[in-house]
Amino acid sequence: MNNNMNSGESRATTICPPTKELSTANILVIDDSKHIRDFVSAVLQREGAAVVGSATALEALEICKLRPFDLIMVDLRMPDMDGFETLKLLRSQQVAAPMIAFSAGNEQQKHVDEAGFAFFMSKPVERATLVDKIRELLNLSTEG
């Protein structure tokens, strides 16, 4: 698949097939940084999750109209729309999946909690924290 961000093609990428612990999980990762999307997607793919990446909040809103997700990760600072507004619009579309906010900024935990995010992660995202928190939010056992 051509992942050239300037090609005019959709910037959503699907990474599959699920094979391991998170094999029942469908996860959407929304971040304008290709590096972050690729890292998070690779970590989750190694755990068996089916992952879709979106470079913009607007694209993610369209993707969520087409398929359900078990969990959504949202960057709080994106050029087209911040993560707080993204969460509000996804909820208005009846998207009920838990959402993890992540950012390199120093957002106040209280603001993130009040907005309705299930969890906040600082960038850079740590692999173990990411996997453990997703398992917890999806109520998945760590036993194989």
Name of the top-level CATH class? Alpha Beta
The CATH superfamily label reads: Response regulator
Low-pLDDT segments: 1-11, 13-19
- How many individual domains? 1
Mean pLDDT: 84
Biggest pleated-sheet summary: 6 strands, mixed
Strand neighbour order, sheet with most strands: 1-3-2-4-5-6
List the helices and strands and how they pair.
Layout: E1 13-15, E2 26-30, H1 34-46, E3 50-54, H2 57-66, E4 71-75, H3 83-92, E5 99-103, H4 109-115, E6 119-122, H5 127-137
Parallel strand pairs: 2-3, 2-4, 4-5, 5-6
Antiparallel strand pairs: 1-3
Description of the molecule:
The protein has 144 residues and is α/β, with parallel strands linked by helices. It has a single domain, classed as Response regulator (Rossmann fold). Helices cover 35% and strands 19% of the residues. A 6-stranded mixed β-sheet has the order 1-3-2-4-5-6, sandwiched between helices. The protein starts with 12 loop residues before the first strand and ends in a 7-residue tail after the last helix. The N terminus is likely disordered.
